[in-house]
Amino acid sequence: MLSDSTRDPDTRRFFSRPDQKMYKIHHPEIHGRLCIGSSEGWLITVDELSELHALNPLTGASLALPSVATFFDVAGVVRDSDGRITDYVIGYDNLGEVPHEAEHMRVYYYLKAILDPSSAAVAVIHGEFNDLSFAPAGDESWTALQPPLPQIFCDIIFRSRCPGLAGGSDV
Q1: CA dihedral sign, ordered 164, 155, 40, 28
Q2: pLDDT of amino acid 167
């Protein structure tokens, strides 16, 4: 996905590798969003309040994702007098709770996200220590994956089970 060189901020250009063509698509819902991942035509974007969205720009399909406030390290939100979110409070083991502006969260909190089209589950690498969380379709909160030893994640991939293999082994 590339921004369009025209003056329309709601239009994006998409490059298709299989047919080596560029396509223009008008999508007002992605205006101003950052893209932090893509998978089989789906984009995972972050809006101005640091909320994640899953969108397939070719079909127009979208999925509701849990709020950023449901990640295990987000201890709360700060709102202004009009009720708008201004900051997210992150809980740190050594620093306690520290507020971060929504724009800071939007740019620095997420490393990568990916969607498994077969199950509509989303996995996200996030936070200061590149933690890994996921949310199956329809969940209202993120579930942190806690490996037995501390890990810093840098990439994620979904693998499908192949029913034709003995024992349904991963492929």
Answers
A1: positive
A2: 47
Query: The pTM is what?
Result: 0.83
148 exposure class (CB count in 10 Å sphere: 0-12, 13-18, 19+): exposed
Selection from 139, 98, 115 nearest residue 35 by Cα: 115
As a whole number of Å, the end-to-end CA separation of the chain is 29
CB 55 within 8 A of CB 40: no
- Chain-centroid distance of CA 23 in Å reads 24
Answer yes or no: are the C-beta atoms of 70 and 141 closer than 8 Å.
Answer: yes
Of the candidates 138, 71, 135, 134, the residue with the CA atom closest to the CA atom of residue 105 = 71
Helix (H, G, I), strand (E, B) or coil at 21: strand
Place of tokens 């909160």: 141
Taking only the tens place, the pLDDT of each residue in 12-63 is 777 777 788 888 877 777 778 888 998 888 899 999 999 999 998 888 889 9
Element (H, E) at 103: helix 102-108
What token pair was written down for 127? 């936070």
